[in-house]
Write a structure and sequence with these properties.
With 297 residues, this protein is an alpha/beta fold. It folds into two domains: 2-154, Rossmann fold (3-Layer(aba) Sandwich); 179-296, Riboflavin kinase-like (Elongation Factor Tu (Ef-tu), domain 3, Beta Barrel), CATH 2.40.30. The chain is built from nine helices and 14 strands. A six-stranded parallel beta sheet has the order 1-4-3-2-5-6. It has a six-stranded antiparallel β-barrel with strand order 9-10-13-12-11-14. The chain has a two-stranded antiparallel ribbon with strand order 7-8. Helix 6 (157-165) runs antiparallel to helix 7.
């Protein structure tokens, strides 16, 4: 699969007609996956997936999240496994968001030589979301897929974000179709974990990922491609040197090594408990020991 960065002023035109999957595709959740799979199986053409280079909230104040479930790099890896041929990354700015639905069809989709469109039935586009599936059907062959519903929850990026912020990792993972994952580099912290006998790797995020509810999680971290069962604290660690900004601290039981600067992928498996302030360091150490037993059970 190939990634193509798109600018409105300089869009490529494909020699042969292509099919395109429309949506935001942040998270590439199970609903997104069905749209892409349908296009790959039924289109009979090369398939592109359209996404944006920034979260909608970075341009639209107050209406959309400024954080993401997946970086563009994350999306590439997931979509590649689904069999698409191209990932189109369209630059998101006020000019694009102010474009009418008709102009988006003519100046973007038709210019790219799109013949077939695949999207969820609630897909909207163009200024003030004036465009819909019906409008697309006047210009292209359109396949719309019904919305997914899991336990009376619509499968959507916003619902997954809500679950993460509530600490409902299992529900978020169910809608994603995989474990929620973050990527970043291991950075040097305050060494408080090492001081009390539980050294941690501090994860410096590579994208503005959604931060789950503050608390302690069962996780799997990948360093140099190898998985490690781990215990992760998300929050301000209020017992020792409380922070102003949240941190992500990963403890790998029985692991030794200085991995500063290395890449880490972190998968969230289960929520164990909320972050809390302990009266003494001994109480904190005892609880961490119990947490480690819990993740190994």
């Amino acid at each position: 699969m190939k990634t193509i960065l798109l600018e409105l002023e300089n869009l490529p035109r494909f020699a042969s007609p292509i099919s395109i999957c429309l949506g935001n595709f942040d998270g590439v959740h199970i609903g997104h996956q069905q749209v892409i799979k349908k296009a790959v199986l039924d289109s009979g053409t090369e398939v592109a997936v359209l996404t944006f280079d920034a979260p909608l909230g970075s341009v639209i104040d107050g209406r959309k999240a400024k954080q993401v479930l997946t970086s563009v790099s994350d999306r590439f890896q997931i979509i590649h496994r689904l069999g698409a041929d191209y990932l189109f990354v369209l630059h998101l700015d006020e000019k694009l968001l102010s474009m009418s639905a008709e102009d988006f069809i003519v100046k973007v989709l038709k210019k790219l030589n799109v013949a077939k469109v695949f999207a969820g039935e609630d897909y909207r586009f163009g200024h003030e979301q004036a465009g819909d599936i019906e409008l697309l059907g006047k210009h292209f062959s359109v396949t719309s897929l019904p919305l997914f519903d899991v336990e009376h929850h619509k499968v959507s990026t916003s619902q997954i974000i809500a679950f993460l912020k509530q600490g409902k990792i299992n529900k978020a993972n169910e809608l994603l179709g995989r474990h929620y994952q973050m990527h970043g580099t291991i950075s040097e912290g305050l060494h408080n974990g090492k001081t009390i006998g539980f050294p941690t790797a501090n994860l410096k995020l590579s994208a503005p990922y959604v931060i789950p509810k503050f608390g302690v999680y069962k996780t799997i971290c990948y360093i140099d491609g190898f998985p490690h069962l781990s215990l992760t604290n998300v929050g301000l660690h209020p017992t020792i040197q409380q922070l102003d900004m949240p941190s992500i601290e990963v403890h790998i039981p029985n692991y030794e090594g200085n991995d500063y600067g290395k890449a880490m992928y972190l998968e969230f498996i289960a929520f164990l408990r909320p972050e809390q302030r302990f009266a003494t360091l001994d109480e904190l150490k005892a609880q961490i020991s119990r947490d480690i037993v819990s993740i190994k059970a």
